[in-house]
Amino acid sequence: MEEKMMKEEFMPEDSSPVPMKARFNFCPDGWFSHGSRCLLFVNIPMSWYNAEEHCNSMGANLASVSNPREYSYLQHITKTGGQSIVWLGGFYLQGRWLWIDREGLYYTNWYAQSTSSSYPCMYLRTTNGWGNTQCTSGYRFICSKNPFGC
């Protein structure tokens, strides 16, 4: 996939800034732009580990969630892809839940939490909240990256 990027032109100090509506979408073709992130729904079932590796190959990670609005948007992408469950980037390690992209896990939206040590990988549910299961389950997934991460 080819990324389309526009060069910023030099602006003299006395010129006015570019209005917000004139900003360009720096996400690669096929990716959704949401907030400061680019998101990609991958319609191929994989284990949590393989899904994260697939995202890594595109300079991304499995998606993290920092607020209800983001979660709602990820649910929308999942429904649009014809799914009810997708992998998220949450995992359980050494007694706590973490995001694979190193974001802080301050917002939680558990629907039903299974034993964390036996089911250490997190998935999104389109109906309500997220859950956790074995990492070897095969689900579709959402990759997330910063458009300016290079």
TrEMBL record:
Keywords for this protein: Disulfide bond
Superkingdom of the organism of origin: Eukaryota
C-type lectin domain sequence ranges: 34-144
Gene3D superfamilies: Mannose-Binding Protein A, subunit A (3.10.100.10)
Record protein name field: Ladderlectin-like
Organism of provenance: Scomber scombrus
Organism taxonomic ancestry: Eukaryota, Metazoa, Chordata, Craniata, Vertebrata
